[in-house]
From TrEMBL:
Alphabetical list of InterPro entries matching this protein: Aminopeptidase_N-like_N, Aminopeptidase_N-like_N_sf, PepN_Ig-like_sf, Peptidase_M1, Peptidase_M1_dom, Peptidase_M1_pepN, Peptidase_M1_pepN_C, Peptidase_M1_pepN_C_sf
Pfam families: DUF3458, DUF3458_C, Peptidase_M1, Peptidase_M1_N
Keyword Protease: yes
The name this protein goes by in its record: Aminopeptidase N
Length: 894
């Protein structure tokens, strides 16, 4: 089985604490049990020899007792899947097998105040299919240590509150691994013998083990420099496998922009002499912020017009920025424990969002952020895995790298920004970083810095970290014509969530504006204001019900509520269709304008899905679309957003019992109607050829509009299929080719099927393009989609060993194609269940992520519920299930 084939065992001790659970229930880790580490690491020296069949790791740790911990607490060294050849304490050999607790951790009692631990371990990187710790990807060796991968490399107090300077010697064969990298700066390199060479890296910044990285392989490097604000020159090195040379230009330029932005916006400079980025084909997540040596999923770094779409180019800039911004928010100041994950992730995602808003269109960025929050985070927050931004317990921390911790966490940071204003917020961040530089901090530390910088009491605001679920705000209003007063009545509530039956009222910033009958902003005066004004106001909700009075209000206004999406809530106000049309036409807040259009479309789509279509609704939507299509001087990117109907997942969010097929059919019908009614417009849009491909905001928006047009033209009819065939044939870039491929993948016509095959033949040497080919078919709408996805799992290029490939087919199908995943015969669920079970022994992290859609079973009708549960039960019956999958499956059923 998988566990034993990971290791070559003889007389040595194998630590496999993360081995699949057997009969015993896995342990729950709780925030309230936090204890400071008994020992701190003064320095660590590693020697990692990759030249043999297995990796050999020699580690020397200099330790001392932590004055902040219990005096008699033992020294704990985490270790997993290691073949431990020797372990010594101040030179005396220990027998590790007698020192392990149930978790496999080495527990040493009666250790001197200061001591040295030396160890020699071995493992086989090529057998490490979990992609956690040190593993092989293609021809290279690389590492992934967050959250708890370092213990799979060497015995160590593998927790984020133990920080140490690392010195790492990497040894490997020169022929296969000419490039040897680790964190910090290279201080020595040379030959060991005829075959082997070495490099010594030193990272002076004390860091937790999760930020350790090592890479060895035959890699091409693109180099550039960056001169910091204070005049230091930083070398930027991008490493890729040779076939990807020439595809790092975009990422490199994005890095330079991110470095400059962090200097100008936050006054934060880079701190080492080199910044390295390595692109890896097998990676569980997007990228990793290892100190000075980021490791990236190829998908988020390699860009060329033939292999990356406009969306990929945009994501690359965002992820490059995200990992760079971690250098301060995450690395210089890290997290005390994993419950504080959002301390680094929420803050860094927010900084990434600010960067994207500064580089492009603020409104378009905001719309994208809100779309993602509503489709990925809101359902999570309403389901069985719902947890607060700071969870208070977990079984497997890898399951908590979630939309809640990341995206809702970023919204929480945005609310501080809204409450404090940009200047005070910036000062708060700087204060937090200065005060905790070189430390492992908590969310309370951040909140305290913000309170001081803003001169605010944020104790109630802190509930955003501890209460799960999406708050609901009901707004009513009242106009008193006699006294010219207008009142907004706001009621907030928060649904119960697992372990949290009762909730307290939250502190919620609600940005509002008032519009007059002429469509212009309407001035009014709040009782605490000296004069009336018409600007956006931030109302602060703190009570279950609050009345906000506006005086000197000359007429009954139309309220514009939750401008800029000022809080991650669901807001309800009894707008009429006329009100929404009015806001769509006149609101000065571009986000609110878009939102009014979406709400209008949502009504039409829901009526349609519930079998009560309203012709006047469709007509209104058509008018709104026409107005967008004909609007002069509107940012084309905003027009594209306005012409994109709410997605099926967001529609599902609005239904008590979700009917994925009805939602899909309704959306398709409405698309077909709009396609036909506005055919002339779509034809014009689609035939507006731009010149050769160029990644530039206006061009990107134009391509998006062209491809939207192509989609509408082919919705519900095949009249314009030839346009898709021709576009696929003639385009010079992947964005346009994929848009055409998506249309063709839905068609049963022979020429369409041939084109889909030909696309594969043409691009079969490009893994990232082949991923898209799988994804496009997983998202296709055909009577036999489930069967086709099943067949694709048997395609020679399909493998569960590569996370990008597994996600492209199975992740896209289960999350992005609800109508077919939820096929009434349960075939979609069975397909997913089977592959989760197949994947679990090899890559439990990925298996647990793919499983997530089944957790939502309560939202569906009885027969679907039954069939979904059946798969969860089937999974739970498996012996030796990973902690990862066990936690998701058992919490889903529980
Ligand atoms: N810290 C990274 C995300 C990440 C998390 C876990 C990983 O392996 C289990 C890998 C990457 C980030 O936020 O970019
Ligand atoms: Zn991050």
């Amino acid at each position: 089985d998988q566990v034993s084939c990971l290791f070559h065992t003889d007389h040595h001790t194998i630590f496999n604490s993360s081995a699949p659970m057997s009969a015993s229930r896995p342990q729950t880790i709780r925030l309230r049990d936090y204890q400071p580490p008994a020992f701190l690491v003064e320095r660590i020296h590693l020697r990692v020899d990759l030249s043999g069949g297995t990796a050999q790791v020699d580690a020397t740790l200099d330790l001392h007792r932590n004055p902040a911990a219990d005096n008699d607490a033992p020294l704990r060294l985490d270790a997993e899947f290691l073949d431990l050849e020797s372990l010594t304490l101040d030179g005396a050999e220990l027998e590790p097998s007698t020192l392990r607790d149930e978790q496999g951790t080495i527990v040493l009692h009666d250790v001197p105040q200061r001591c040295r631990v030396e160890s020699v371990s071995r493992f086989d990187p090529a057998a490490n299919t979990a992609l956690s710790g040190l593993y092989r990807s293609g021809g290279m060796f690389c590492t992934q240590c967050e959250a708890e991968g370092f213990r799979r490399i060497t015995p160590y107090p593998d927790r984020p509150d133990v920080l140490a300077p690392f010195t790492t010697t990497v040894v490997a064969d020169r022929a296969t691994c000419p490039v040897l990298l680790s964190n910090g700066d290279c201080i020595d390199r040379g030959a060991l013998d005829a075959e082997r060479h070495y490099a010594v890296w030193h990272d002076p910044f004390p860091k937790p083990s999760y930020l350790f990285a090592l890479v060895a392989g035959d890699l091409a490097c693109q180099e550039a420099t960056f001169v910091t604000a204070s005049g230091r020159e930083v070398a930027l090195h991008f490493y890729v496998e040779p076939e990807n040379a020439g595809r790092t230009e975009h990422a490199l330029a994005a890095l330079q922009r991110a470095m400059r932005w962090d200097e100008t916006h936050y006054g934060l400079e880079y701190d080492l002499d080199t910044y390295m980025v390595v692109a890896v084909g097998d990676f569980n997540m997007g990228a990793m912020e290892n100190k000075g040596l980021n490791v990236f999923n190829t998908q988020f770094v390699l860009a060329s017009p033939d292999t990356a779409t406009d969306a990929d180019y945009e994501n690359i800039e965002a992820v490059i920025g995200h990992e760079y911004f971690h250098n301060w928010t995450g690395n210089r100041v890290t997290c005390r424990d994993w419950f504080q994950l959002s301390l680094k992730e929420g803050l860094t995602v927010f900084r990434e969002h600010q960067f994207a808003e500064a580089m492009g269109s603020e409104a378009v960025q905001r719309i994208g952020q809100v779309r993602l929050l509503r489709t990925a985070q809101f359902p999570e927050d309403a389901g069985p895995m719902s947890h607060p931004v700071r969870p208070d317990s977990y079984v497997e921390i890898n399951n908590f790298y979630t939309a809640t911790v990341y995206a809702k966490g970023a919204e929480v940071i945005r609310m501080y920004h809204t409450l404090l204003g940009d200047d005070a917020f910036r000062r708060g961040v700087q204060r937090y970083l200065q005060r905790h530089d070189g430390e492992a901090a908590t969310i309370e530390d951040f909140l305290a810095a913000m309170e001081e910088a803003g001169g605010l009491d944020l104790q109630q605001f802190a509930l955003w970290y501890t209460q799960a679920g999406t708050p609901r705000i009901e707004v009513e209003d009242h106009y008193d014509a006699e006294h010219n007063t207008y009142t907004l009545i706001c009621r907030q509530s928060l649904p119960a969530s697992p372990g949290q039956p009762h909730k307290d009222p939250m502190h919620i910033p609600l940005a509002v504006g008032l519009l007059g009958r002429d469509g212009r902003p309407l001035a009014a005066r709040r009782p605490d204001e000296s004069t009336a004004h018409a600007h956006t106001r931030v109302l602060e909700l703190r009570e279950p019900e609050q009345h906000f009075v506006f005086e000197q209000c000359p007429e009954r206004p139309v309220p514009s509520l939750l401008r800029g999406f000022s809080a991650p809530v669901k807001l309800h106000y009894p707008y009429t269709d006329d009100d929404l049309g009015f806001l769509l036409a006149h609101d000065s807040d571009p986000f609110a304008r878009w939102e009014a259009g979406q709400q209008l479309a949502l009504r039409v789509l829901l009526d349609e899905a519930q079998g009560t279509p309203r012709p006047d609704g469709i007509e209104r939507l058509e008018e709104a679309f026409r107005a967008s299509l004909e609007a002069p001087d509107t940012d084309p990117a905003l027009v594209a957003e306005a012409l994109t109907l709410p997605g099926e997942t967001y529609l599902a969010e609005q239904m008590d019992v979700v009917d994925p097929q009805a939602i899909h059919d309704a959306r398709q019908r409405v698309r077909a109607i709009l396609g036909e009614a506005l055919e002339g417009h779509w034809l014009i849009l689609h035939s507006q050829h731009s010149g050769p491909w160029h990644y530039e905001p206006d061009e990107v928006a134009r391509r998006r509009l062209r491809n939207l047009a192509l989609g509408y033209l082919n919705a519900g009819s095949e009249r314009h299929l030839s346009r898709a065939l021709e576009q696929l044939e003639r385009s010079d870039n992947l964005t346009d080719r994929l848009a055409a491929l998506a249309v063709l993948a839905d068609s049963p016509r022979a020429e369409a099927e041939q084109a889909v095959d030909a696309f594969y033949q043409r691009w079969s040497d490009e893994p990232l393009v082949v991923d898209k080919w799988f994804r496009t078919q997983a998202l296709a709408d055909r009577p036999d989609t489930v069967y086709r996805v099943h067949q694709l799992t048997e395609h020679p290029d399909f493998t569960l060993d590569n996370p990008n490939r597994a996600r492209a087919l199975l992740g896209a199908f289960a999350q992005g194609n609800p109508a077919h995943f939820h096929s009434p015969d349960g075939s979609g669920y069975r397909l997913l269940g089977e592959h989760v079970l197949r994947l679990d022994p090899n890559n439990p992290q990925l298996a647990a992520r793919l499983l997530a859609p089944l957790a939502q079973w309560r939202r569906y009708n009885a027969s679907r519920r039954h069939a979904m549960r059946e798969q969860l039960e089937r999974i739970l019956e498996r012996d030796a299930l990973s902690k990862d999958v066990y936690e998701v499956a058992s919490k889903s059923l529980g």
